[in-house]
Amino acid sequence: MIKLHDLEFEPYISEEEITQVIDRISDEVNRDFGDKTPVFIGVLNGSFMFASEVVKRFQGDCEISFVKLGSYKGTESTGEVKTLLGLNQDLKDRTVVLLEDIVDTGNTLVELDQILKQSGVKEYKVVSLFFKPEAYKKSVPVDYIGMEIPNKFIVGYGLDYDGLGRNLTQVYKRKE
Ligand SMILES: O=P(O)(O)OC[C@H]1O[C@H](OP(=O)(O)OP(=O)(O)O)[C@H](O)[C@@H]1O
Ligand SMILES: Nc1nc2[nH]cnc2c(=O)[nH]1
């Protein structure tokens, strides 16, 4: 068990399991985008570990960029997604692969969908390491999912609780 600020968390998904999931999802990404010179866009902050592992496994030509969006305060979504660092690259007519650590309510994804459509991409697909089907209320497709998880707050592997826990190499869930 670990403590971050005032909350306790227990081990939930091991590093080995995360690696297996990333291997599988990266195979799918290689298969579908290997010859398309995609632009990978990682959604900061949470996706930095996952994004680096996926792009390290990518075997074709690609470009890599990041945007930074934020909407969580403590363990809850505020419902308001702020763009903290926008796109700084021309994506017109490009194939884009969004790399997210988690899709939860979908608020962040809806914002990204608008940003990408406005930028004139040829196509874009969403890859997310974790997905909470019970929490997802939107219709933007999540095309590649590493793991479906219940509607519980998790930390580790890039995901934080009020800034702490991103460096943990396995995933923990909030202790009930
Ligand atoms: O589907 P949603 O309910 O929108 O949640 C998903 C988003 O929440 C987290 O980001 P957060 O807003 O916590 O910012 P961070 O990545 O900087 O921690 C995560 O990295 C996703 O981008
Ligand atoms: N740390 C963390 N951030 C999130 N953002 C959306 N869902 C979650 C979650 O379960 N944990």
TrEMBL record:
Catalytic activity: GMP + diphosphate = guanine + 5-phospho-alpha-D-ribose 1-diphosphate; IMP + diphosphate = hypoxanthine + 5-phospho-alpha-D-ribose 1-diphosphate
Key word Membrane present: no
Domain of life assignment: Bacteria
Gene Ontology cellular component terms for the protein in this record: cytosol
Subcellular location: Cytoplasm
Cross-referenced Pfam families: Pribosyltran
UniProt pathway: Purine metabolism; IMP biosynthesis via salvage pathway; IMP from hypoxanthine: step 1/1
Record has Cytoplasm as a keyword: yes
Gene3D superfamilies: 3.40.50.2020
EC number from the UniProt entry: 2.4.2.8
SUPFAM superfamilies recorded: PRTase-like (SSF53271)
Chief place where the protein resides: cytoplasm
GO BP: GMP salvage; guanine salvage; hypoxanthine metabolic process; IMP salvage; purine ribonucleoside salvage
CC cofactor: Mg(2+)
Keywords on record: Cytoplasm, Glycosyltransferase, Magnesium, Metal-binding, Nucleotide-binding, Purine salvage, Transferase
Entry-linked InterPro entries: HGPRT (IPR050408), Hxn_phspho_trans (IPR005904), PRTase-like (IPR029057), PRTase_dom (IPR000836)
Domain called Phosphoribosyltransferase: residue spans: 17-161
GO molecular function list: hypoxanthine phosphoribosyltransferase activity; magnesium ion binding; nucleotide binding
Similarity comment: family membership: Belongs to the purine/pyrimidine phosphoribosyltransferase family.
Name of the protein in its database record: Hypoxanthine phosphoribosyltransferase
Organism: Christiangramia oceanisediminis
Name of the encoding gene: hpt
